[in-house]
Description:
Helices cover about 70% and strands about 10% of the residues. By secondary structure, the protein is mainly alpha-helical.
Amino acid sequence: MLSDSYRKKQVKSKVMIKWFRIYGNYFCGVWPVGCVFFMIQELPYAVMPFLSLPANVLMEMEIERPVLEIMEKIFGILTIVLLVLLVNGKSERFPFSTWRDKSFFISAMLFLSAYFTGWYFYFNGHQSVALILSLLVAPPPLYYMSLGLWQKHCPLVVASVIFLIFHLANVWTNLTN
Length: 177
């Protein structure tokens, strides 16, 4: 008979692939569940080419400040890389044992729901700056931040907060100038 701790280690090892330790409990590896979370967030972009939008403000906006654009891209890519390729060795597959775990996972799903609600309005012609910033720009970094908090993944939390700042600043500057 296998012990509970051994079974937990086996489940964890099947879900998080670890190649080598980077520092502390963080490993270079792959978190396939993180790939799924990322792909779910990208679904509206897969649907967009098949829709005939009267206007597509987000895809047609002019870049006003290239530095903001570059920093937004750097921290957006870093957030995804950290989500998928930096594995917290102490993290569980789906930790739901504490109120903390449940609340951070639920908050991630709420941010994702807000994001999809924003796309629903956007695809139906509601493209105000307030809607774009509050339901399309802010939720993805907050979603990744919540996933990082849920997985106790400090580098992901820090990168997603910085991504949030640059993402909001860049899109707000581009839409209001």
